[in-house]
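Bench log. Compound arrived from synthesis this morning; before running ITC I wanted a structural hypothesis for how zinc ion sits in the protein. Inputs:
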Amino acid sequence: MHCPKCASQMNKIDDFRFSAEKCSGCNGIWFRDSSHEIAKSLAAAKSIDESNTNAAAAYNLVRDIDCPECKKPMLKMVDRTQQHIELESCHYCDGVFFDAGEFADLTEFTLLERVKKAINAFKSNINA
Ligand SMILES: [Zn+2]
Ligand SMILES: [Zn+2]
Protein backbone atom coordinates (compact mmCIF):
# COMPACT_ATOMS: atom_id res chain seq x y z
CA MET A 1 0.00 0.00 0.00
CA HIS A 2 1.15 3.53 -0.74
CA CYS A 3 0.69 6.66 1.33
CA PRO A 4 -2.25 8.83 0.18
CA LYS A 5 -0.27 11.96 1.00
CA CYS A 6 3.30 11.39 -0.16
CA ALA A 7 3.01 8.10 -2.14
CA SER A 8 5.79 6.39 -0.14
CA GLN A 9 5.56 2.75 0.85
CA MET A 10 3.47 2.04 3.95
CA ASN A 11 4.47 -0.69 6.38
CA LYS A 12 2.19 -2.75 8.58
CA ILE A 13 2.35 -1.95 12.30
CA ASP A 14 2.84 -5.25 14.04
CA ASP A 15 0.05 -5.46 16.61
CA PHE A 16 -2.72 -8.06 16.63
CA ARG A 17 -5.22 -5.78 18.43
CA PHE A 18 -5.68 -3.33 15.57
CA SER A 19 -4.90 -2.98 11.89
CA ALA A 20 -2.70 -0.07 10.87
CA GLU A 21 0.09 0.92 8.51
CA LYS A 22 2.73 3.58 8.87
CA CYS A 23 4.22 5.62 6.05
CA SER A 24 7.97 5.30 5.52
CA GLY A 25 8.06 8.80 4.03
CA CYS A 26 5.91 11.27 6.02
CA ASN A 27 5.31 8.97 9.04
CA GLY A 28 1.55 9.33 8.68
CA ILE A 29 -0.51 6.46 10.06
CA TRP A 30 -3.44 4.70 8.42
CA PHE A 31 -5.92 2.86 10.67
CA ARG A 32 -8.37 0.38 9.14
CA ASP A 33 -12.02 0.24 10.28
CA SER A 34 -11.60 3.14 12.72
CA SER A 35 -9.21 0.96 14.69
CA HIS A 36 -7.51 4.08 16.08
CA GLU A 37 -10.36 3.96 18.61
CA ILE A 38 -8.89 0.70 19.90
CA ALA A 39 -5.28 1.71 19.44
CA LYS A 40 -5.53 5.00 21.33
CA SER A 41 -6.64 3.25 24.51
CA LEU A 42 -3.60 0.96 24.58
CA ALA A 43 -0.76 1.75 26.96
CA ALA A 44 1.85 1.54 24.19
CA ALA A 45 -0.17 3.62 21.75
CA LYS A 46 2.06 6.65 21.81
CA SER A 47 5.12 4.66 20.72
CA ILE A 48 3.41 3.98 17.38
CA ASP A 49 3.75 7.63 16.54
CA GLU A 50 7.26 8.47 17.67
CA SER A 51 8.54 10.55 14.83
CA ASN A 52 9.83 13.92 13.78
CA THR A 53 6.68 15.95 13.41
CA ASN A 54 8.48 18.94 11.88
CA ALA A 55 9.32 17.01 8.75
CA ALA A 56 5.72 16.01 8.32
CA ALA A 57 4.11 19.36 9.09
CA ALA A 58 3.81 20.19 5.41
CA TYR A 59 1.71 17.08 4.84
CA ASN A 60 -0.81 18.35 7.34
CA LEU A 61 -1.78 20.87 4.66
CA VAL A 62 -2.34 18.13 2.09
CA ARG A 63 -5.96 17.30 2.73
CA ASP A 64 -7.51 16.43 -0.62
CA ILE A 65 -6.52 12.80 -0.64
CA ASP A 66 -8.06 9.57 -1.85
CA CYS A 67 -8.49 6.54 0.39
CA PRO A 68 -5.46 4.27 -0.15
CA GLU A 69 -7.76 1.23 -0.15
CA CYS A 70 -10.98 2.39 -1.87
CA LYS A 71 -9.41 5.10 -4.06
CA LYS A 72 -12.35 7.36 -3.19
CA PRO A 73 -12.00 10.95 -1.92
CA MET A 74 -11.67 11.06 1.84
CA LEU A 75 -13.59 13.34 4.19
CA LYS A 76 -11.79 16.04 6.13
CA MET A 77 -12.60 15.68 9.80
CA VAL A 78 -11.56 17.01 13.17
CA ASP A 79 -11.35 14.76 16.18
CA ARG A 80 -14.49 15.19 18.26
CA THR A 81 -12.57 15.48 21.51
CA GLN A 82 -9.65 17.53 20.18
CA GLN A 83 -10.73 19.93 17.51
CA HIS A 84 -7.22 20.95 16.50
CA ILE A 85 -6.45 17.43 15.32
CA GLU A 86 -7.37 17.28 11.66
CA LEU A 87 -7.68 13.88 10.13
CA GLU A 88 -8.99 12.32 6.97
CA SER A 89 -11.62 9.65 7.10
CA CYS A 90 -13.05 7.30 4.46
CA HIS A 91 -16.78 6.72 4.78
CA TYR A 92 -16.64 3.63 2.58
CA CYS A 93 -14.20 1.57 4.65
CA ASP A 94 -13.98 3.65 7.88
CA GLY A 95 -10.23 4.01 7.43
CA VAL A 96 -8.63 7.01 9.12
CA PHE A 97 -5.39 8.80 8.28
CA PHE A 98 -3.37 10.70 10.88
CA ASP A 99 -0.40 12.90 10.07
CA ALA A 100 2.77 12.28 12.06
CA GLY A 101 2.36 13.45 15.64
CA GLU A 102 -1.42 13.68 15.52
CA PHE A 103 -2.07 10.23 16.84
CA ALA A 104 0.36 10.75 19.75
CA ASP A 105 -1.48 13.98 20.47
CA LEU A 106 -4.76 12.09 20.56
CA THR A 107 -3.44 9.45 22.98
CA GLU A 108 -2.10 12.13 25.34
CA PHE A 109 -5.52 13.68 25.58
CA THR A 110 -7.12 10.31 26.23
CA LEU A 111 -4.73 9.72 29.10
CA LEU A 112 -5.37 13.18 30.55
CA GLU A 113 -9.11 12.63 30.36
CA ARG A 114 -8.78 9.36 32.23
CA VAL A 115 -6.83 11.07 34.99
CA LYS A 116 -9.45 13.83 35.22
CA LYS A 117 -12.24 11.29 35.43
CA ALA A 118 -10.41 9.42 38.18
CA ILE A 119 -9.90 12.63 40.16
CA ASN A 120 -13.56 13.62 39.79
CA ALA A 121 -14.68 10.18 40.91
CA PHE A 122 -12.37 10.47 43.91
CA LYS A 123 -13.76 13.92 44.79
CA SER A 124 -17.35 12.81 44.58
CA ASN A 125 -16.52 9.90 46.88
CA ILE A 126 -15.15 12.32 49.47
CA ASN A 127 -18.20 14.60 49.21
CA ALA A 128 -20.64 11.72 49.50
ZN1 LIG B 1 3.40 9.53 3.50
ZN1 LIG C 1 -11.69 3.59 2.06
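What the model suggests: Residues 102-127 form the longest helix (26 residues). The chain has one domain: 10-127.
ITC booked for Thursday regardless.
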